[in-house]
Design brief:
The protein has 6 helices and 7 strands. By secondary structure, the chain is an alpha/beta fold. It has a single domain, classed as Rossmann fold. The protein has a 7-stranded mixed β-sheet. The protein is globular and about 40 Å long. It starts with a helix and ends with a strand.
Length: 203
């Protein structure tokens, strides 16, 4: 897929860094990690099983280690063999899945929570309609593997200007899709200072 090829080119150019997964600002990348982890409703210290879907270089896991999230059982997934190989080199004890779940998700277990950080922020040269169709298909499939809930971020429509290569999703379009097909139990996070928003979708 073109989005994967684009991210792999960023990795080839910038290495193991936020820029290597096409986050231009390291500080903002840390903010996103915290927002993703805020999906978890259990008290800190209560063990939960988390899948980092589209884990890239496992920077979320590094953030968890640095901030004392010891009770979260972390697993990574990515469609890119290059990213999974790099993550396995860093964290050989962690379980990683390298798969395209839209082709075959039979080997992927169910987790308490699944986070999808940056999976839907870029559309590269896809049209908005093509990206929205891909977004809906993937959210449907991933939600099947979450016992409690999932989190994902997209670019906001409430901006001064939109980049043609980014996926700016109107809130109404998102809400109609979620309520009609998946769950009415969701939270929109638009309070962390970036030109995007994060959705927590619960069962």
């Amino acid at each position: 897929m073109e989005i994967v090829a684009h991210l792999e080119s960023c990795f080839a150019k910038h290495g193991d860094s936020p820029q290597g997964v096409d986050w231009p600002n390291p500080k903002d990348a840390l903010t996103r990690h915290q927002v993703m982890l805020d999906l978890i409703r259990e008290p800190k210290g209560e063990r939960v099983f988390l899948l980092d879907f589209g884990c890239g270089l496992s920077h979320l896991y590094e953030y968890m280690l640095a901030h004392g999230y010891q009770a979260i059982d972390y697993t990574g997934q990515d469609v890119s063999e290059k990213f999974v190989a790099a993550s396995r080199r860093k964290f050989p004890a962690i379980t990683y899945y390298c798969m395209d779940v839209l082709e075959d998700d039979s080997a992927l277990p169910v987790f308490d929570y699944i986070v999808m950080n940056g999976v839907f922020t870029e559309k590269v040269t896809l049209s908005h309609e093509e990206m929205f169709s891909y977004f809906k298909a993937l959210v449907r499939r991933v939600f099947e593997h979450a016992r409690i809930g999932i989190a994902f971020n997209v670019m906001s429509k409430q901006v001064d200007w939109e980049r043609a290569d980014l996926f700016h999703l109107p809130l109404d379009d998102l809400a109609w899709f979620l309520t009609r097909e998946l769950s009415r139990n969701f939270v929109i996070r638009n309070d962390y200072g970036l030109f995007e928003y994060t959705t927590y979708l619960y069962r």
